[in-house]
Amino acid sequence: MRGRAEVTRAVLALLAPRSGTRVDERSVNGSTGFVVRVDDRVAAVVLWRARDRVITDLWLVLNPAKLRGWPVVTNERAVLS
Fold it and tell me: Could you tell me the CA-to-CA distances from 40 to 49, 70, 76, 81 in Å, in that order?
């Protein structure tokens, strides 16, 4: 997907408040990112690249096979819960 409106709609749908959803700030591949958990199960990992304070690239990992390596950690600082 491309463009501010299309990406914004997708991210808001992913992060929409639902019971049991929690977003934690975490290190992802050496950069700051977000880990989205639903009922303590990792549902997505979000990473971005920015230039001049504008996000230029956004990566959302949603594939359950790729998310299996993320441990369930509940004692970190929540960004949204």
Answer: 26, 11, 12, 11
**Closest of 45, 80, 46 to residue 66, by C-alpha:** 45
DSSP states along 12-49: HHHH---TTEEEEEEEETTEEEEEEEETTEEEEEEEEE
Helix, strand or coil, per DSSP, at residue 4: helix
The 10s digit of each residue's pLDDT in 41-80 is 898 899 988 889 888 888 889 899 999 888 755 555 544 4
16-to-19, 28, 31, 50, 55 alpha-carbon distances in Å: 10, 21, 24, 23, 20
DSSP, res 60: E
Q: Flag whether the pTM goes above 0.85.
A: no
